[in-house]
Structure formats: C-alpha cells, structure tokens
Amino acid sequence: AQKVTQAQTEISVVEKEDVTLDCVYETRDTTYYLFWYKQPPSGELVFLIRRNSFDEQNEISGRYSWNFQKSTSSFNFTITASQVVDSAVYFCALSEPNSGNTPLVFGKGTRLSVIA
Amino acid sequence: EAQVTQNPRYLITVTGKKLTVTCSQNMNHEYMSWYRQDPGLGLRQIYYSMNVEVTDKGDVPEGYKVSRKEKRNFPLILESPSPNQTSLYFCASSLSRWSPEGTDTQYFGPGTRLTVL
C-alpha cells in the first residue's frame, strides 16, 4: 500500500538559514507521481511541484529545490535562505495512476516556522 | 481566473441538520475530489469523481454523499452531520485522471471549515 512519511513534525529555523524537509514514500508501482504542497497560515493548499517516477533530475525553482532519489524512496525539499513568508505546513504527497483511483496520499505534514 | 471555489468557507451547525458544501471549478477539469483535513491525521480522501455521473468512494466516505451532474460542480452532502465530521474540507480538481504531462496535478479550493455541535 502506498504511504508517505514526513518524520519531521515541526522545524524552527532563523531567517536566512537553509532548511530541508524530508519525505519518504512507499509504493509498489513503478509509475507514480510525487508532489509537494504548501499550506500557509491562511489555510489554502498551494501546489509547489510534481515529479514523476521516471524523472530523477533534481529541480530548482528560485530558493526552492527538490532532491528525488528512488534508491532511498525520498523526495526531499530544501528552502535556501529561508524567509518568514516560508512559514507554513508543507505536505508531501504520492499518487499512483495505475491504482484505479488517483487520490493523493499525503504525509502528515511538516510545520516550518521561520523566525526573524 | 482559473480557480476552485467552495462555499461556505465557514459553517457552524448542529447534529442532524443536513448541509451541502458546494465546489465549483472553471477549468473544465474532469477529475474532482473531496478531502478532509484533521489534526494528526493529515488529509484523507472522502469521494472522487472521474467525470460527470461517475463518482466513487475514497478512504473515508461514511456519512457523506456527493453528486456530479455537471462537470464544473461537485457538491459534498452531509445528510445527518455528527460532531466527528467537524473538520476542514478541501475540494480539488485536475484536468485528467492521470497523465505523464502533469495534467493530473490537483488544484485545491480554499477550504471549508465545518463545526458540528
């Protein structure tokens, strides 16, 4: 069965520090998709990135970067030079297209607090 | 503007009083879904719909109903709400069920915070 584990429940960093949010997933499928969503204090869920299982290239978008490693079933998210506006709960999620349904299976989330 | 809308955003009700949370998307998306978010449990899928008139249960469907009579709307119905349905509810939609091109990315509405007394 598919599963997503975000072992870090809460992280606090001082502004401008780098921070990495861990995500470990379990799946039996060879085709799957991984996602990161951000939930700021206002409560909405904001899509950040999608990665398919056949593309292990790391991705960088501004201060955000993602490290996908199939060998360790991990899809970690790094924020460089963190800012107060990065304070939010971050969710990693997994989707298996061959499962018939495509629910997003979410991790429990990591609450990031960036302190000025 | 492409968006998923939900109404109401906040609702306080009493046990047993039927309610409907509406969800609408303007992106011509085929796939729509409802999730609930609870502390310590994360987000869990309630129901989903592959297309008009096609709906099915997710992981936690008990106590909920849905309908998909039009492509853009996917209301969530609580026939007899109970306190354990107090939660934050999200509607999501995606262009397709799944796709290597990424059209399966689900976009979420702003959430509906429901309290059942």
Summarize the structure.
The complex is a heterodimer of chains A (116) and B (117). Chain A is mainly beta and 116 residues long.
Q: What share of residues of chain B is helical?
A: under 10%
Q: What spatial form of chain A do the alpha-carbon principal axes imply?
A: globular
Order of helices and strands of chain A: EEEEEEEEEEEE
**Total number of strands of chain A:** 12
Topology overview:
The complex is a heterodimer of chains A (116) and B (117).
Chain A: E1 3-5, E2 10-14, E3 19-21, E4 24-26, E5 33-39, E6 46-52, E7 59-61, E8 64-69, E9 74-79, E10 88-95, E11 105-106, E12 110-115
Parallel strand pairs in A: 2-12
Antiparallel strand pairs in A: 1-4, 3-9, 5-6, 5-10, 7-8, 8-9, 10-11, 10-12
Chain B: E1 4-7, E2 10-13, E3 19-25, E4 31-38, E5 42-51, E6 54-57, E7 65-66, E8 76-78, E9 87-94, E10 107-108, E11 112-116
Parallel strand pairs in B: 2-11
Antiparallel strand pairs in B: 1-3, 3-8, 4-5, 4-9, 5-6, 7-8, 9-10, 9-11
Give your account of this protein's structure.
The complex is a heterodimer of chains A (116) and B (117). In chain A, 0% of the residues lie in helices and 51% in strands. With 116 residues, chain A is mostly beta strands. Chain B has 117 residues and is mostly beta strands. Helices cover 0% and strands 49% of the residues of chain B. In chain B, strands 2, 4, 5, 6, 9, 10 and 11 form a seven-stranded mixed beta sheet that branches. Chain B has a four-stranded antiparallel beta sheet with strand order 1-3-8-7, with no helix packed on it. The mean pLDDT of chain B is 92. The interface between A and B is medium-sized, with 22 and 30 residues.
